[in-house]
Every structure is written in structure tokens, then in C-alpha cells.
Amino acid sequence: MVGRGARAARERRGGGGGMKRRETAIAAVALLVMALGLGVLVRLSATRQLGEPGIRVRVVDPAKQKVEILLPERVLNYVSTNLPPTEAELAVLPEDTTIAKRLYQAPDGFQIAVNVVLMGSDRTSIHKPEYCLTSQGWQILHRETVKVPVKRPHAYELPVRLFTASIVREVAGGRTVRHGGVYLFWFVADGRIAAGHFERLAKMTLDLFRTGRLPRWAYISCFAQCDPGEEPDTAERVKRFIAALAPAFQRVTLPEKGPGAVRAAGGIGD
Q1: Where are any strands of DSSP class E within the chain?
Q2: In terms of domains, do 42 and 73 share one?
Q3: 28 and 107 share one domain
Q4: Mind listing the pLDDT tens digit for each residue in 220-238?
Q5: Is this model's pTM higher than 0.85 or not?
Q6: Nearest in space to 201 (alpha carbons), one of 212, 217, 190, 213
Q7: Is 216 domain-assigned?
Q8: Is 270 a domain residue?
Q9: What is the pLDDT of residues 31-66, one digit of tens each?
Q10: Would 68 disulfide with which of 11, 51, 58, 82, CB 3.0-4.6 Å?
Q11: Domain carrying residue 169
Q12: How many domains is the chain partitioned into structurally?
């Protein structure tokens, strides 16, 4: 009995030691994550160097790194109208944010709203894409990542996020009408493409540590409204539009080449 009791006591002590080792390991990992996060924040606050945009722009003020985004006026058989940023957008976004908005319309009346937000030195220019829909009353019903086949300048598949959404609006007479909508978006920077928000953040962190320059990401989105039930067909139509839009103003493709690709190709004004 004494032997068994002593052995049990040793096992209890050993188990406690194992638990302490696990707790120590967890604490070490937590400290490492905190240190990495602090390092990122220090880098972000210290750096004033911006990476090149991954989209076509025209330099407006070199000293302030202000640019104009060059969205094409025509895509396929769509014509477009330029839309100025709203007062609410200008009030919320950092001053060095660049915005481009165009409404594209096909001959049959089908419309696609294209928004491009290009960050400056303040990374808060780009927020989670969900906010763009929910802040306007849309309910997101489904999320997925899809591939858009792009043929120029060479064949590759552009990964984009697709949100299927719904909204109920009140019309004349107090009636309510339900509308459907599809929202497709992706992000590009110098030598980088990301479909999702967290993928973009991971690549931004990696490139910041590697180069010491803050990647200048652009958030590109396409929205089209439709009748309920028509979302799949509408999404396919927007994908065909994106396949033509991307090579018209986007300066990066897949496979990724990493930071420096835009400058190697001739600079941002090319």
C-alpha cells in the first residue's frame, strides 16, 4: 500500500509538472504573438514609405503621394458614368485615401457599380467588406470564394469573394419589396492579390516586415442588384465583366511576384 501510495504521489507531481510545462508553452506562444503584433504596430507607426499601387493611376501630387485612379470608361459593351465620393465617405475615410467610383451600364439596362478604394499611409482606409453592405441595410445570405478566368495579359484565375445579399425596401403605398444583390470584391497591391480581408492583412504584415515599406492596397468591388432567385446568373454576368475590367486597369497578375513587381514593369504611371 505504501509503495502504491508513493507511486501515485509521484504521478500526481509529474502530472502537475506536465501541466505547468503546457501552461509555460502557451504563455510563451502568447508572448510571441503579442511581440509580433507590437512589432507590426511599431513598423506601421514608424514607416512613411508606401509601396506602389497595384492598379493604374495618375500622379496628382508627388509630395503628398496623391494619385487619381484610372478606371476605364468602357468595358465590353458597357458605358459608364463617373460618380463622386459621398460626403459620408470623405468624412469617414483618412484624408490620403483615394476613391474611384463608376456606374457601368449594358445596352439592356443591366448595371454594375464599381468602387475602388486605394489606401494611403493610413491602413484604416480599407475596412472589412461586410460593412459596405450591412451599413446600407443589406443582409448577407451567403459567402464564398470564386475564380474569374482572366485572359490578358496572360491566362490566370483571379480569386474574388462573392457575397449574396438581400434587402427589403418600402415602396409607394406602404408595400415592401425584396431585392437580391451580388457583391464581388478582391484586393491588389504591388505584386500581390488577395481575395479576402484576412488574407490581405497577412500579406501586408509579411511584406511590411520584409521590405520596411507599407504595401499600398486597393480594395476593388463590383455590385449588381437583381430580382430574388436571379443571383447565380447575375454573379456569372458580373464575373464576365470582371474578366474584362481587371486587365484594363490592374497592374498585377498571378502567380504573385511580390513587392517590386510594379516598378520592375515600368512604374505606376505606365
Answers
A1: 57-61, 66-69, 74-75, 78-82, 98-105, 111-118, 139-150, 156-170, 176-189, 192-194, 218-226
A2: no
A3: no
A4: 999 999 999 999 999 999 9
A5: no
A6: 217
A7: yes
A8: no
A9: 554 555 545 545 554 556 889 999 999 998 887 778
A10: 58
A11: 52-264
A12: 2
